[in-house]
Amino acid sequence: MRKIGVVTSGGDAPGMNAAIRAVVRIAYSKKSQVLGFMKGWEGLITNTFTPLTPRSVGGILQLGGTILRTSRCPEFRKKEGIKKAAENLAANDIDGLVAIGGNGSFNGALELSKETDTLIVGIPATIDNDIFGTDETIGFDTAVNTAVTEIDKIRDTAISHERVFIVEVMGRKRGFLASTVGLTVGAEIILVPEVKYSKANIFKTQRENSAKGKKSGIIVAAEGIGDTHKLAREIEENTGAEVRLSILGYAQRGGNPTARSRLLASLFANKAVELVSEKHENKLVGLQKGEITSIELEKSCKTEKPLDLNLLKLANILAT
Amino acid sequence: MRKIGVVTSGGDAPGMNAAIRAVVRIAYSKKSQVLGFMKGWEGLITNTFTPLTPRSVGGILQLGGTILRTSRCPEFRKKEGIKKAAENLAANDIDGLVAIGGNGSFNGALELSKETDTLIVGIPATIDNDIFGTDETIGFDTAVNTAVTEIDKIRDTAISHERVFIVEVMGRKRGFLASTVGLTVGAEIILVPEVKYSKANIFKTQRENSAKGKKSGIIVAAEGIGDTHKLAREIEENTGAEVRLSILGYAQRGGNPTARSRLLASLFANKAVELVSEKHENKLVGLQKGEITSIELEKSCKTEKPLDLNLLKLANILAT
Amino acid sequence: MRKIGVVTSGGDAPGMNAAIRAVVRIAYSKKSQVLGFMKGWEGLITNTFTPLTPRSVGGILQLGGTILRTSRCPEFRKKEGIKKAAENLAANDIDGLVAIGGNGSFNGALELSKETDTLIVGIPATIDNDIFGTDETIGFDTAVNTAVTEIDKIRDTAISHERVFIVEVMGRKRGFLASTVGLTVGAEIILVPEVKYSKANIFKTQRENSAKGKKSGIIVAAEGIGDTHKLAREIEENTGAEVRLSILGYAQRGGNPTARSRLLASLFANKAVELVSEKHENKLVGLQKGEITSIELEKSCKTEKPLDLNLLKLANILAT
Amino acid sequence: MRKIGVVTSGGDAPGMNAAIRAVVRIAYSKKSQVLGFMKGWEGLITNTFTPLTPRSVGGILQLGGTILRTSRCPEFRKKEGIKKAAENLAANDIDGLVAIGGNGSFNGALELSKETDTLIVGIPATIDNDIFGTDETIGFDTAVNTAVTEIDKIRDTAISHERVFIVEVMGRKRGFLASTVGLTVGAEIILVPEVKYSKANIFKTQRENSAKGKKSGIIVAAEGIGDTHKLAREIEENTGAEVRLSILGYAQRGGNPTARSRLLASLFANKAVELVSEKHENKLVGLQKGEITSIELEKSCKTEKPLDLNLLKLANILAT
Questions:
Q1: pLDDT tens per residue across span C12-56
Q2: Which helix (H) or strand (E) holds D98?
Q3: What pLDDT, on the 0 to 100 scale, is given for residue A93?
Q4: I need a surface site. Which of A4, C16, C116, D251 has the fewest CB within 10 A?
């Protein structure tokens, strides 16, 4: 019988619980036992865990957040912390560790992999969708829909008051969330960290929209694009439009996962447990071209996922 | 045949369209005709209106915002603007004007009533629920549920990360929204403009909660209570808790109205058209002690609605 | 220190958990202890209970269903079962029993009250809203909104296909749910068990609607009005309209409670614990004319709550 | 300047409006003009259409149903009807016709293509997801999420009453919806038309679940699997479990499209207009292995899309 550890780390994402449940039940079907480490990497360092069984993960499929808790763990960025974690993996006889999280978590996992014989498999779960090696991460679809639902509401006010709204969505460094949300709410303008924007162009677009009878508008901006308060004020001053700012905030990270986030969680978990059972190298599972696949953990950590600029071009045409 | 005008003014609220629809169809059943003035009081000054029929208000019952548009209208705060509006009411032979909006709108309506023979009836519609003469306004229930749904999501992250969240809801001057939302999400602390709060007490409560095993928490704050960014930082510094701020923003003002907001809209419109038909004085319709009633428009404008402090006390006990 | 029992019985309703939580925390603030009996009256007969503490009811406020489980309990309709329950109340030193449920539950509670000295207080929780002594029950607002949300979706198809839909909502004997839902979705026709309907009139209305350009329509029917499959077929045959039937089903009974259902649950629980503490007679708490009140349990059981027919008349006008 | 026709046909699906909007705006960006034919193929036969412009399709992106209406059109199954449609395409100088719909619609389109020189491009939009040549259809993701949301609610009652629920989802012939919904709600059993099921096995699974402490359960069944009323009764009789049936019905076909349904609609429309501009043969656009592609319309019509049985196997393991 094999022993598998599971841990959620970094920012929480809807569907993490679905992934935990799937890891446990699939492992159980392969006669493996699962330990859940608490509070992210912290639990590996402090050796805090709880045995997980098919029954103990009942009723969590549809819950946001993570029953294993999560944290950002500074100790884990130090050699000492990582060594302690490696010791605990050995002490508990863990054959494979399934790490559910985002970029930061996988960098940690990569460091840990250098100090341990335990096989490590990553499952990408973050609303940012910024992980190389997968077209989509667990939680992304949920966050997109949460933002879209909110912006559909904001548009009611935009239209009624004939105002322009800048809506800031999450994404400090990357614009995956902003670009998908922007296209699917029909945003007039989408601003992402990857593409430099010209304020003059924004003013021009706004004036043209106004001229062609678009009396209200939505600008979707990733938080990483700079000062949106200032931008709102400047658009107002330069175009005469009434402009308001709404920052969607942490609700984007929570809530019941959508069907798609639950499905991805189940498929990724299935692949991860399979990889652990087959004693592959350290890997990250993912969705690539519609198939569940995997790549080297290291490659994922060291490569930047490109943003699909065609989506932004299409959004631009659709906002005509 | 009577001629009724209808106008939506001030901030939009979910259920305004339901009220417009009901005014038109009830008026029609009483053989009255309805004109919809556009963009709030501005439409009365510029004499911009559209005839509304039972068919033309089809399909709007469930839509947020207002098909008549709305605005804040500075011209209407001047004698000249009000005179112009009064002239247009006379020129169009309007027997009664139904004004759907909030406090500012009714102050305008009251001024207008002094310059016109047209009967004016107000229908309270604002997510702030701050209008004297009614226990509940159109849109309040929707905004409460929108905020509650968002905060339920934020709690997922609060629990997963063992963090405290300050969630800022709308309410520059009044805490009706914050107190109902706070109680119904099970907030650990509720802050409203009407009640001075002691930072020392907040720190103490947070420390006690932490001591009794509440590792996460929600503080619901009305926007009018002061600088929530600063408050978040100070709680963090004084209690050791990780604190985050989320400002719910404009989504609270939009979205499909809840059943209750639609019901209130229908009942208020029914009463308003009845008052217009019966040539009462200028009134505001409302819900009082479970009944649809009305009070003098002037009385509503000149009286401050008290906040139910018992709700805050109960919320405090429930947050044990 | 007093000892309070709490039990949920009959059909589940969203907000029951909010009521359990509130009973426990309010009791705790009055230095009382709470035992939760499991699976409705069955738990009183089998003496199956669990101690409830402020911490053990954490995180349940927003959950549908009931953590205490519920059941329909045939043994409790027999003298023997009731005697056993009374003995267990005595054996556990229960000063007051808070029964959360609907009509059937309160009839049981009334019988039990004749065999025990334990004070019994009922909290009305049922999506049917059919309990005398309260204008609204816990769960009603949630069920109304669930149905309204579903019917808003069905209307998309109705309009796109130019069809008439009969939508059957819950309500075997009473039409509270159907009438509120019908009015708030803008149903063309509302059918409730309390009002005999003429098929000829339905055909006539449908033909008139069609003639005035209403190409689609919604008929909201309580399940107790008879065979809706047959009705659909007959409307089709007699009017030429394409008619479809949709039965909303059990989803109406579940889901996260709305803010209003949570608020009522908290207010009712507060009153119930107060009544238990003050050693009143057996009572049912309720909302009457906007105030939290109580009436004799027996009176509630023996009186039929009237349906507000004015709501149906208004709905009829609004469907113009 | 080219002239493009657009038509929605067959059952409506959420995202059809998003597709119409995208066709119009993308065509416009390529200097093409768009005519919208009304009520499915009927509008081609009766030559009923409306010119569509970037402005006239504003505000429809998020609406369920189809502004062009739809119908099942028996005349179009006859030679005569198809000839009439072909004549009208010629009379209106339509270069390309974009047909948005499902299987039946594309069979019609294929017949029409034999009688006309107008290029025909199909966009797959149906909640059934049963079209060969695309991994996913517009509306499927929305219907899945609608069903999942409903079943999450039903589970509250299932758990509270310790009952088994059979939930019937749409799918007369195919089980795509049932299998994805079943996996993502964590159904204990999934029944699809493609896989023969043994009642004895269902009884056995139910008894085993009960023995291992699963006191409630969800069985997701496609409508095409046979008499679910009877099945419910038989499970009850053979296992002792309390069993209820809930038929989700037409709400699965309506509602605001999810982000994913909107995104697919936009991407498919983009491809369709491109194909029309480039004078390809008659094609169906689709999503294959994560890429937007196209196949011959005829091939799609004449090939049955296989159901992924691995999904059912995985669901089975996850229901452990």
A1: 999 999 999 999 999 999 999 999 999 999 999 999 999 999 999
A2: strand D96-101
A3: 97
A4: C116
Per-residue pLDDT, D232:
98
Indicate which residue of B95, B128, B130, B141 is catalytic: B128
Phi, psi of D319 (to 5 degrees): -85, 10
pLDDT in tens, D222-239: 999 999 999 999 999 999
Question: What fold is seen in the domain A143-253?
Answer: Rossmann fold (3.40.50)
Calpha distance C133→C301 (Å, rounded): 9
Do B300 and B164 contact (CB within 8 A), yes or no? no
* Alpha-carbon distance values, A150 to A102, A262, B95, D196 (Å): 25, 21, 40, 43
Confidence of residue D313 (pLDDT cuts 50, 70, 90): very high
Sheet holding C189-191, edge to edge: C189-191, C217-222, C164-169, C243-247
ipTM associated with this complex: 0.97
- Suggest the residue from A266, A267, A310, A312 to mutate for an interface test with chain D (most D CBs closer than 10 A): A266
pLDDT digits (tens, 9 = 90+) for D32-44: 999 999 999 999 9
Interface A-B, measured as beta-carbon pairs within 8 A, has a size of 112
Q: What is the model's pLDDT at position D36?
A: 98
Is the domain defined by D3-139+257-302 classed in CATH 3.20.20.450? no
Q: Among all residues of chain C, which has the CA nearest to that of D17?
A: C160
Check whether domain D142-253 has CATH 3.40.50.460, yes or no: yes
Nearest CA-CA distance, residue D99 and chain C, Å = 16
Every domain of chain C and the residues it spans: 3-139+257-302, 143-253
Instruction: Compute the distance between CA of residue B238 and CA of residue B218 in angstroms, rounded to an integer.
Output: 17
Q: State the DSSP H helix or E strand holding residue D52, giving kind and residue range, or none if neither.
A: strand D49-52
Q: Where does the pLDDT of residue C281 fall: very low under 50, low under 70, confident under 90, or very high at 90 and above? A: confident
Common-topology check for domains A3-139+257-302 and A143-253: yes
